[in-house]
């Protein structure tokens, strides 16, 4: 039987969470795509438009918005007509851990609908990189089973509504495969977080998220079809349904905690209302490390890697640098 949930406390914690407010600016499909493009080397309008297929007016609006937020720095590269390239700021570079978590999730669960490198090379150790979420205090890998969550609503953020984002309705997933940036938007991530916090029934989710019943029903249906949730009968009450996480939605933890941490430190300058404590006893501060050398990964140390592993081994045997 599920433990009882304090729905009012959970509602306030979610409403004042740095996750919710961070997703208010970074939670729609096209903003995600533009920021992904930034970290894969796109800098000019035509590169984004042609490479990602974003409508021109939508792309222009997102570039203006991200520049106003201090995430992109426009620099003129042509005077007649005036054209700008867009470069990630220090504030944007601090988002790199969540970008790596997004990449890792897409590689495991996505359907290839986002234009991302097939593999990443960590220049510090010369090996292919699988990003791993780890606890900064003890260095151990982190997942939801190793964390205890405490809720402490943040009054300053309760008084400020998250900036709304326009998100498309979640379509049915091809072959049951979800895709971050295409089917995983702000509301999907907040629903996953609410389930993590113990809200497994429709009425609980509606109360803590403030979503109308018809809209929530469509969201949940789409997430079940996309394999982000599973729905089963409540054994204690056959009239009710229980929503539980799947392997795909549990794997979103890395993206969720890194985005929440970034929004707290670099955008909102407010504490998180959802406080995770790692099994080592310290308040959890995320870091993303290389699966091979366990060093914290920095954007400047990662390159797209298309070279087969067999070729790299052959080069290493012949003394050719990776």
Keywords:
11 strands, 322 residues, Arc Repressor Mutant, subunit A, alpha+beta, disordered C terminus
Q: Mind explaining what this structure looks like?
A:
- By secondary structure, the protein is α+β, with helices and mostly antiparallel strands.
- The protein has a domain at 7-23 and 95-254: Arc Repressor Mutant, subunit A, CATH 1.10.10.10.
- Helices cover 41% and strands 17% of the residues.
- The chain has 14 helices and 11 strands.
- It has helices at 7-15, 18-26, 29-39, 45-52, 56-68, 90-93, 96-109, 155-158, 186-196, 202-209, 213-225, 247-250, 253-268, 309-317; strands spanning 72-78, 83-88, 120-122, 127-128, 131-135, 147-151, 229-234, 237-245, 274-278, 286-290, 302-304.
- The strands form 5 sheets. A 3-stranded antiparallel sheet has the order 4-3-11, with no helix packed on it. Strands 1-2 form a two-stranded antiparallel sheet.
- Helix 1 (7-15) crosses helix 10 and helix 2 (18-26) crosses helix 13 (253-268).
- The N and C termini lie far apart (53 Å).
- Mean pLDDT is 86; it is low at 165-179 and 309-322.
